[in-house]
Amino acid sequence: MTSPVTDQDYIQRHRTVWANRPDLRAAYRTYFDLLKTAVGDRRPVVELGSGPGFFKEYWPELVTTDIVANAWIDHVCDAWRLPFESGSVGALVMIDVVHHLPKPLDFVAEAARVLRRGGRLALIEPWITPLSFILYRYFHHEDCSFDFTIDEPFGKGDKDAFDGNAVIPYRLFRTPGVFDAFEPITLRPFLGLPYLATLGFKRTTPMPGIALGFANTCETLFTPFRPLGATRVYGVWEKR
């Protein structure tokens, strides 16, 4: 009988794959650069949903948080119940976290509470377009469904830490009034081809370098097709 995979097993597996995959690290570095640029000189910077701590390897001064305790986390907490005083945080950054949150509206309110005026929320999440819906719905291990309410997309019961629904960011960012405490800076969908070319964490060995280079070239060439095929979105909001 196979033992159940624990959250710690999941994180450790990702650490192992990460160490063996320079192509995957290169794809993520693009995300890290985007978020670091968005933050500028605002401090302190808190990462939500840090998981295995990849971003902190790139940017050691990050304060890391996650709901799952592990060796790479500074604070174990929910994204909607942060252990920081009101107005004490310069920026919040996150990658692939919102689509896991059981209380997205509470998260936005909590982000507004802890950020000081002029502080920024910067993130990268899945995005829904006609082509990406097919990708997330039929070729991804997480859910992709519009059948939920934005206040509690997973219902009132407990959920596993890594359960997700790719539609949540799309719905949350387009719901009127949710970000009234923020000034929108950018909400930019993008194709995300370099990451797709790595095949993510399912693959344990590196893809050939030419594959990532070709994907980067296509990301630029096919920019006009973002409304049809964007798989990710880069969003930045500034606290009013």
Would you identify the CATH H-level superfamily?
A: Vaccinia Virus protein VP39
Helical stretch tally: 9
Portion in helices:
25-40%
- Give average pLDDT, whole number: 95
Which strand order does the major sheet show?
3-2-1-4-5-7-6
Q: How many structural units, i.e. domains?
A: 1
Provide the β-strand percentage band.
Answer: 15-25%
Going by CATH, the architecture would be 3-Layer(aba) Sandwich
Can you tag this structure with a few keywords?
about 240 residues, Rossmann fold, alpha/beta, 7-stranded mixed sheet, single chain
Structural commentary:
- The model has no long low-confidence stretch (mean pLDDT 95).
- The longest helix is centred in the N-terminal third of the chain and has 18 residues, at 22-39.
- This protein has one domain: 3-Layer(aba) Sandwich (Rossmann fold), CATH 3.40.50.
- With 240 residues, the chain is an alpha/beta fold.
- It is built from 9 helices and 7 strands.
- 37% of the residues lie in helices and 19% in strands.
Would you kindly provide a brief summary of this structure?
This protein has 240 residues and is an alpha/beta fold. 37% of the residues lie in helices and 19% in strands. Strand 4 (89-95), helix 4 (104-114) and strand 5 form a beta-alpha-beta unit.
Topology diagram in text:
Blueprint: H1 7-20, H2 22-39, E1 45-47, H3 54-58, E2 63-66, E3 75-76, E4 89-95, H4 104-114, E5 115-126, H5 130-139, H6 167-173, E6 182-190, H7 193-198, H8 209-221, H9 226-229, E7 232-239
Parallel strand pairs: 1-2, 1-4, 2-3, 4-5
Antiparallel strand pairs: 5-7, 6-7
